[in-house]
């Protein structure tokens, strides 16, 4: 229904019939494309390069370029998704051992905007004091980074919703941080006989559990797979319209 869709700012859907609206919804998402802001530079990734790592918000790049931050549990597949988006196998290093990202890592895309890889939360095998520090500077970055366009909060769709992810999503909502839910590992199928659910079912369950005091309707969301590259084009289109709106305003 229209109530569950995400309409970018300044998007007038009242003139669109149901068929016209369906054609504008990104596949595997609830995001409507805006004819006013989608497109332009950045829909395709031509160049991607690592710029710097920071442990304080004030040490991040000061060039004023728009940026999108990736955050999620330590084993959700952040680095794999980042590599998928830029079509580079090792721009962001992946590891079988969760928790390798320990800083705010800026990657410059097409010389005009950033993807930012943040430390994961949850299961990283690091001292408690270090994990507390990661949590502190990550949330400080969310609250005080003026060039942050949106947080892309990664959720593992191959497993049932976890309370730690729901609590993190609620914290972002309570602090009015612009957020897109990115459901990862949507290529994985758990067998019904073992009690697992399809990725689509886990996505629906997560959204249902989110709705409450903070969220009255679901935020924008996209289903992805770093293995099959499902959702890659949709993420870039969504980023382009958010970025173009941000640059204009």
From TrEMBL:
SUPFAM superfamilies: P-loop containing nucleoside triphosphate hydrolases. It holds the Pfam family MMR_HSR1. Residues 64-245 form the EngB-type G domain. GO terms for biological process: cell division. Its cofactor is Mg(2+). GO terms for molecular function: GTP binding; metal ion binding. It comes from the Eukaryota. Keywords: Cell cycle, Cell division, GTP-binding, Magnesium, Metal-binding, Nucleotide-binding, Septation. Signal peptide: none annotated. InterPro entries: G_ENGB_dom, GTP-bd, GTP-bd_ribosome_bio_YsxC, P-loop_NTPase. PROSITE patterns: G_ENGB. Belongs to the TRAFAC class TrmE-Era-EngA-EngB-Septin-like GTPase superfamily. EngB GTPase family. This is EngB-type G domain-containing protein.
């Amino acid at each position: 229904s229209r109530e569950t869709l995400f309409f970018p700012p300044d998007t007038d859907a009242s003139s669109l019939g149901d068929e016209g609206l369906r054609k504008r919804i990104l596949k595997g998402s609830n995001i409507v494309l805006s004819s006013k802001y989608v497109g332009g530079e950045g829909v395709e990734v031509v160049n991607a390069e690592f710029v710097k790592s920071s442990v304080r918000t004030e040490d991040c790049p000061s060039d004023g370029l728009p940026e999108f931050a990736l955050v999620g549990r330590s084993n959700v597949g952040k680095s794999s998704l980042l590599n998928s988006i830029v079509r580079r196998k090792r721009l962001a290093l992946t590891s079988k051992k969760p928790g390798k990202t320990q800083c705010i890592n800026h990657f410059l895309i097409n010389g005009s905007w950033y993807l930012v890889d943040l430390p994961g939360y949850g299961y990283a095998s690091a001292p408690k004091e270090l994990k507390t520090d990661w949590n502190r500077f990550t949330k400080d970055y969310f609250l005080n980074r003026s060039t942050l366009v949106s947080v892309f909060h990664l959720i593992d769709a191959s497993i049932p919703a976890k309370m730690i992810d729901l609590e993190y999503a609620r914290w972002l909502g309570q602090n009015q941080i612009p957020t897109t839910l990115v459901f990862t590992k949507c290529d994985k199928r758990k067998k019904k006989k073992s009690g697992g659910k399809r990725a689509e079912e886990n996505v629906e369950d997560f959204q249902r559990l989110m709705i409450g005091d903070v969220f009255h309707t679901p935020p924008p969301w996209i289903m992805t797979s770093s293995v099959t590259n499902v959702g890659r084009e949709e993420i870039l289109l969504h980023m382009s319209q958010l970025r173009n709106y941000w640059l204009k305003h």
